[in-house]
Design goal:
Strand order of the largest sheet: 6-5-4-1-7-8-9
CATH superfamily of the largest domain: HAD superfamily/HAD-like
CATH architecture of the largest domain: 3-Layer(aba) Sandwich
Strand content: 15-25%
Radius of gyration: 17 Å
CATH class of the largest domain: Alpha Beta
Order of helices and strands: HEEHHHHEHEHEEHEHEHEH
Bound molecules: magnesium ion
Number of domains: 2
Helix content: 40-55%
Mean pLDDT: 95
């Protein structure tokens, strides 16, 4: 039997912030941009709490944050520079994606990050499907629009069903790799769930395996 037929999984789906991309102090890209350019951490905390309590819809949270960036006159260049300065690809991230693709796995992203995070930090990675939040810019590099992803938090599990449908892969043959509490629901649905440097015990509990350090470890785990 050849390798493809013997293989247990066909698709590997990654979270971004905290999984493919790290920050020195654990902040995700949203928080990083808000802190750097708007400087009011209390607003971040209030919006997070309001979201948790069901008083703020996810898409409104995205809108409020991006409108704040727009009011502050942030350009594509300034946001990209902040991402490049404060975030970095996790050890082995680029190599892992390239190795999986070359081996015939489909590779996808389902994340609450910004499209710019991948464009700035992992520009050469080829993904078969990408679901993230989008910020759009005009010819002058000013923010001209945005689209909130329906596939963050509990919606990540719906995102996995959608990606599996688009790529014609059964969910039980999909691996998911994530780090935080917004990954718990998708981890329950995926055929195999890897917690990468989990930020809460509940994430490690729901995963099939926990890894730390170089992401290339996951290749042997799923092979
Ligand atoms: Mg994450």
């Amino acid at each position: 039997m050849n390798d493809v037929l013997r293989r247990r999984y066909d698709l590997v789906v990654f979270d971004v912030d905290g999984t493919l991309v790290g920050s020195r102090d654990g902040r995700v890209v949203w928080r990083l941009i808000n802190d750097r350019f708007l400087g009011d951490q209390e607003i971040d905390d209030q919006r997070w709490q309001a979201f948790l309590q069901g008083e703020l819809l996810y898409e409104d949270w995205v809108r409020l944050d991006v409108e704040g960036w727009q009011s502050a006159g942030l350009s594509r260049e300034r946001i990209s520079s902040a991402i490049a300065a404060d975030l970095y690809p996790m050890p082995g991230a680029k190599e892992t994606i390239a190795t999986l693709s070359d081996a015939g796995y489909r590779v996808a992203v389902i994340s609450g990050t910004l499209n710019l995070t991948l464009e700035v930090l992992l520009p050469d990675c080829r993904f078969d499907a990408v679901f993230t939040n989008h910020v759009e810019f005009d010819d002058q590099g000013k923010i001209s629009g945005w689209r909130a992803t329906p596939y963050d938090m509990a919606g990540k599990a719906d995102g996995l069903h959608r990606v599996c449908e688009e790529l014609a892969v059964p969910v039980e043959r999909a691996v998911f790799v994530g780090d935080n509490v917004n990954d718990i629901e998708i981890m329950k649905v995926a055929g195999f769930a890897i917690a990468y440097e989990p930020k809460a015990p509940s994430v490690a509990d729901v995963a099939d395996v926990v890894i730390e350090g170089d992401l290339r470890q996951l290749i042997e785990l799923i092979d």
